[in-house]
Amino acid sequence: MDITIFSPGIYTYGAMLIGGVLRDAGHRVTLTRTPAAPAGSLLLASLFSTQHLLDPAVQDLIRTHRERGGTVYVGGPVSAAPEIVLGELAPDAVVVGEGEETVVRLVEEGVSDALPGIAFLDGDRVVVTPPAPPASIGRPLPQIPEDIGSQSIRGASAYIETHRGCIGGCTFCQVPRFFGRRVRSRPLASIIEEVKAFAACGATRLSVSGGTGSLYGSHDGEMDPEAFIALLRGMAGVMGPRNVSSPDIRVDCITDEVLDAIRQYTIGWVFFGIESGSDRVLRMMGKGATVREVEEAVERCREHNLNVAGSFIVGYPGETERDYEATKDLIAGLCLDDVFVSSAEPIPGTPLADLAVRTPREKNPAFVPHTGEYRPLDLTESEARCFDLMMHADMYRPQIRLVTDEIYSAYLAEAKKQGRDIRAATDLILRYARA
Fold this sequence. Notes:
Layout: E1 2-6, H1 13-24, E2 28-32, E3 42-46, H2 50-53, H3 56-67, E4 72-75, H4 82-89, E5 93-95, H5 100-109, E6 118-122, E7 125-128, E8 158-161, E9 163-164, H6 175-178, E10 184-185, H7 188-200, E11 206-209, H8 225-239, E12 244-245, H9 256-265, E13 269-275, H10 279-285, H11 291-303, E14 307-314, H12 321-334, E15 338-343, H13 351-358, H14 381-394, H15 405-433
Parallel strand pairs: 1-2, 1-3, 3-4, 4-5, 8-11, 11-12, 13-14, 14-15
Antiparallel strand pairs: 5-6, 6-7, 9-10
InterPro entries: BchE-like, CHP04014_B12-bd/rSAM, Elp3/MiaA/NifB-like_rSAM, Methylthiotransferase_CS, rSAM, rSAM_horseshoe, rSAM_sf
Organism: Methanoculleus bourgensis
Keywords: 4Fe-4S, Iron, Iron-sulfur, Metal-binding, S-adenosyl-L-methionine
C-alpha cells in the first residue's frame, strides 16, 4: 500500500518511527513536511501541536484528501484529546496513544470497534476503543528522509528517542500522561545502530530525546548514571562529541559523573526547565523542584564548565505580579547563557488544560488586558510578561545582547503570536469541555 505520512513543518521522530514500522510491514512510505498527499495514497497525519488542529492548511489537506476518496488517519500527541481531533479535522480515525502496533492493524484491517487504541465517529457519536497496551521499546529503524540534514530543531537534525516516560508530573506537560511515569529504555546497541543510520543519511547533529535525558537506563525512578554515560559515549563515537546534544535534564537528575560526560561527549550545554522563580508557582506547576535546587544545579553545571540554558513559563493561571518579579530576580541572579520564554499554553489532556477550563476569563492572564508600562502595545498580561522577560533576560547573559529595534520587534511579535495561539487553544478546549 502507498502511504504518505505528513508531519507539519519538521520530520518528527514519531513520524519517522511510524514510517519505519509501516515500511517493515511491507508498505511503501513517503514522509513529507508540507501539506500534500498524492491521490490514492493513504494519508497519516502525525500532529504534535494543538495549533495543527486549527491550521487551515492541515484542515484543507485532510478535507480534500477525503473528498477525493482517500483515507486519513491522525496520530501523534494530539491524540490525547481524540474527540477534539475528530470534531475539528473529521479524519477516518485517530490513533490514540503509542501507535506503533495499532497503526499497522488499522492500515491493513481498517476501522473497527474491535481494534484497541483508536477513536472514530459512528454517525455523531465518538467511539473510543479500549487503550492499546504500551508499545514494545524495540523497533525497526525509522524511515529517515534523505534531506534530514537540512533540518534544524534547536540545532539538531533530529532528536533520537532513547527512552519513554518521565518521573515528573509537570502540569503543563504531556509526556508522563502520554508515555507514563515509568521509564522504559531502549537497548544501547539499537540506539547506536540508529545513530549510524541517521549519520549515513546526512544528519549533522543528533540530540537525546525522551524527556529528561539522564533518566536513560533508570529503574524504578532511580538513575543509572553509567547507562547514560555509555549512551553519550556511544553516540559521540559515531557523530563526534560536538555533534551530540543532551539538553533536557531535570535539576534533580544530575550527578558529577553525568555533568562530566555531558562536557566530554556533547556540545557542552545543559537545558533546564526552570519555569519560575516562585516556589509557589513551581508547586502549582507540579515541578517537584524548588528555586534553591535550581540555583544549586546551575552552580554545579558552572563548576563543570558547562553552558546552561533555561526555559521559563509566564502567565500561568494564578501567577501574581509578585511571582513574576521573583522570576525576574532569579534570571538576574543565574546569568544563564540562554533563556527561552513562553506563555503558559494549555495542552489537551494535561492538568493545565483542566485549570484553564476552571479559570474565569477575567482572571486568566492569557485574556486579561495589560494595564502597566506596555499598555500602548495592546497586550494581555501574559503577553506583556513574556515580552518583558525576553528583554530582561538579555540584560543578564554573560555576554550582553543589545536589544536593537529589530530584536525588540521580534520579541514583541513572538509574544503576541504566543498569546493568539494560547487564546485559540483555550477557546478550543473550552468549546469541547462544554459540549
